[in-house]
Known about the structure:
The structure is a single chain. This protein is α+β, with helices and mostly antiparallel strands and 158 residues long. It has a single domain (10-153), classed as Aminopeptidase (3-Layer(aba) Sandwich), CATH 3.40.630. It has helices at 20-30, 37-45, 88-102, 117-125, and strands at 10-14, 49-55, 58-68, 71-79, 107-112, 129-140, 143-153. Strand 2 (49-55) and strand 3 form a beta hairpin. The relative contact order is 0.14. The model has no long low-confidence stretch (mean pLDDT 93).
Amino acid sequence: xxxxIEEVPVHIRRMIHDDLPLVSDIERRSYEFPWSHGVFRxxxxxxxxxxxxxRGDYVVAYAILSVAAGEAHxxxxxxxxxxxxxGYGDKLLREALNSARExxxxxxxxxVRPSNVGALALYRKxxxxxxxxxxxxxxxxxxxEDAAVLSLRIKKTL
Length: 158
């Protein structure tokens, strides 16, 4: 007899200081040139919109959004490599876009590596379009990698 596997509840909540070791660990396992623990701490202290996605009690993804002057910038959005392709990145992105809409921004920006095919597909799915390129933006093995600058106009809800 085949039994149905019970789904683990998923929630998005504000990041707290106690999440930083887990967030930093996900970052280190995800990127060759990760953000430091201090950068995440500084984002919290600066009052950026920092969120985590939890699966049960375990942090599996996070997003950092800054809002200023009618614009928002997604600074970081990452899913633990063990939990990718389950829709968690899309859930976090939708939450970040809702936060931007609530802050009454008109446009959301982000940079992404052109080699990050999965992230590009996610952002394009949500309506982002490339508006520019930043040469040598990212540190990369053997040199630098350009960044694709993406933008999404935020529509106000009626």
